[in-house]
Specification:
single chain; 307 residues; alpha/beta; Rossmann fold; eight-stranded mixed beta sheet; globular; disordered N terminus; binds S-adenosylmethionine; membrane; S-adenosyl-L-methionine; mitochondrion inner membrane; magnesium; SAM-dependent_MTases_sf
Length: 307
């Protein structure tokens, strides 16, 4: 299995923050001005469909990004629609999540409900593509998204099946749940960080949601030329898998940058894998090639070890 191969041959290890010459400076990442308006302005708008209550942490909301997702919210469960790539990638990302979380929490990966007893939050859950299988795997799932329409679709779809109707869906943000002092065993956020206003602050919020001994899984797209060619030019313009403008190349993070901002948020990245697409089979698989899509598993450091 590719993820266990990664443990013995961690090619991604070279991306850990030792040589930072090619990385954007952390301070630059942290200080990038959010494209969205300040939190107070967001709060004062009553006509939006986005999560809008104020939080003491800087807002992760980037309104133009949220508007894009709101516009296509009714296509979440169209397997041939704009979220087809996420549906296609789902078994592969679930394989990584199953393997890393089971190892971390001492669960049996071969069990039909390996996540029984785990409280899992899916941050930026969209229509629930990931939340639903997590619930079927036994987790007590909370799914949150900043777009109200997404949450409505997610709830409607989850209610079609008794094993997923237990999912707690809420239109909110990670930073607001931090204010409410919510804690989870596993905090998962897939394909969201490239859409938030401030990735470093977002990672701090994810970290604050992790309970003692917990873990996190984050996936995103590498800011590489290959990612530009495949995730933007091919996926959006040539193959038209995604609406044009879905992704901004400059918002992508390299594995090195993601590892670094997670580290600053007291999360140690322990394992990383890439996703590669086979155009002949039409399937995704785990790989040690992290040059385009990649996923990271990390654990929370003890408070006393915090940098
Ligand atoms: C590419 S989709 C990924 C959906 C889901 N995580 C998956 O992989 O199936 C990104 C999602 O993140 C949500 N989102 C973007 N910014 C957010 C934020 N600051 N807080 C919560 N959700 C956010 C969007 O509304 C959208 O549903």
């Amino acid at each position: 299995m590719a993820s266990s191969k990664l443990l013995s041959q961690p090619r991604w290890f070279r991306f850990l923050p030792r040589n930072l010459s090619n990385a954007r400076l952390f301070s630059e990442l942290a200080s990038q001005p959010p494209v969205s308006e300040p939190q107070n302005n967001i709060e004062s708008k009553s006509n939006n469909n986005f999560s809008s209550k104020a939080s003491s942490t800087p807002s992760s909301l980037k309104e133009p990004e949220l508007a894009k997702f709101s516009a296509i919210a009714d296509t979440w469960w169209d397997y041939e629609g704009p979220f087809k790539p996420l549906h296609k990638m789902n078994p592969t990302r679930l394989a990584f999540i199953r393997s890393t979380l089971c190892r971390h929490f001492g669960k049996d990966p071969l069990s039909p409900r390996p996540f029984e007893g785990l409280r899992v939050i899916d941050v930026g859950c969209g229509g629930g593509i990931l939340s639903e299988p997590l619930a079927r795997m036994g987790a007590t799932v909370t799914g949150i998204d900043a777009v109200e329409k997404n949450i409505k679709i997610a709830r409607l779809h989850a209610n079609l099946d008794p094993t997923t109707s237990t999912i707690e869906y809420c239109c909110t943000t990670a930073e607001k749940l931090v204010d409410e002092q919510r804690k989870f065993d596993a905090v998962i956020s897939l394909e969201v960080i490239e859409h938030v206003a401030n990735p470093a602050e977002f990672c701090k919020s994810l970290s604050s949601l992790i309970d003692h001994g917990g873990a996190t899984v984050v996936s995103t797209i590498n800011r590489s030329m290959r990612a530009y060619a495949t995730a933007i030019v091919a996926a959006e313009y040539l193959l038209q898998w995604l609406p044009k403008g879905t992704h901004q190349w400059s918002s992508f993070l390299t594995p090195e940058e993601l590892t670094m901002i997670l580290k600053r948020a007291s999360i140690d990245v322990k394992e990383m894998a890439g996703f590669v697409f086979n155009p002949i089979s039409g399937r995704w698989s785990l790989s040690d090639d992290i040059s385009v899509n990649f996923i990271a598993f990390g654990t929370k450091e003890n408070e006393s070890e915090t940098v």
